[in-house]
Design goal:
The structure is a single chain. The protein has 259 residues and is mainly alpha-helical. The protein has two domains: 165 residues, no CATH class; 93 residues. It is built from eight helices and two strands. The protein has a two-stranded antiparallel ribbon with strand order 1-2. Helix 4 runs antiparallel to helix 6. The N and C termini lie far apart (168 Å). 32% of the residues are buried.
Length: 259
């Protein structure tokens, strides 16, 4: 049974035209070298393997487990219609390098680890990224039908990239110490100043409100007292005026001539 790699996206030749394909024999056992496939076809296969492992390591590992446990199920996981656009994109860049882009650091590292061309891997990765997440696993199934050992190496390289991305304990400790130092020297003083300012503002507002209330109460008391004194003084003045009037009447009586 053969799995064919399209070598051209020439529409005139037709999507399944034998003029634009070279077959890769399927090897469920994963014989290195893809059973005599040509160098160009091998580079396409490696590029797709690198891209699949880079895009979906978990899915790639699941495919490898299937290939080990139930190899017959691997062929069932291949969706030729889904994989073909990826192969066309890779072979297109292979024929015209100007169409290709630059691989990201992760994909390039995986490609180099398995002897793939990083630019071709980038082409496959870009096509996979443009589709849904299932496509990477579908491509991994396709690679496994041809060379499971290659897919396993790609998965190992992808796993190594993930491990290398995790900082060493020394680096993590250094980062934590730097964060603590920054907190003590910069963040903590600023936080203390902020809290003190907030407390001062709160106390100031409370004192202002309390003082204003006290002043208002004092003013009200003074006004009430003044009003009371005014009333009392008025009453006393009226009483004095009455007394004076009575006194004047008595004086008037006393001054009258005696008969």
């Amino acid at each position: 049974m053969n799995i064919s790699i399209p070598l051209s996206s020439n529409a005139a030749a037709g999507p399944l035209s034998p003029q634009v394909r070279i077959g890769l024999p399927v090897s469920l056992g994963g014989t290195p070298g893809t059973l005599g496939a040509g160098a160009r076809e091998t580079q396409v296969l490696r590029a797709v393997a690198a891209a699949a492992a880079s895009a979906n390591l978990k899915g790639t590992l699941e495919v490898l487990k299937t290939a080990k446990d139930t190899p017959a199920d691997v062929i069932g996981g291949v969706d030729r219609a889904a994989v073909e656009p990826v192969l066309i994109q890779v072979t297109s860049v292979q024929q015209d390098r100007k169409k290709g882009g630059t691989a990201d650091e992760r994909t390039a590292a995986i490609a180099r680890a398995i002897g793939a061309d990083p630019q071709l891997a980038a082409a496959a990765r870009e096509q996979i990224k443009a589709a849904d997440g299932v496509l990477a696993k579908t491509c991994a199934y396709w690679v496994a039908t041809v060379d499971a050992a290659l897919l396993e190496r790609a998965a190992a390289a992808a796993r190594a990239q993930e491990i290398s991305a995790v900082p060493s304990p020394e680096t993590q400790i250094a980062r934590i110490e730097a964060s603590i130092k920054k907190f003590r020297e910069e963040d903590l003083p600023a936080l203390i100043d902020q809290r003190l300012q907030q407390a001062a503002d709160a106390i100031g507002a409370q004192l202002t409100n309390t003082l204003a209330g006290a002043l208002t109460a004092l003013q009200t008391g003074i006004e009430a007292r003044v009003s009371s004194l005014g009333t009392e003084l008025g009453s006393r003045i009226d009483a004095v005026a009455t007394d004076l009037s009575q006194l004047a009447d008595r004086v008037s009586v006393l001054e009258r001539p005696r008969r």
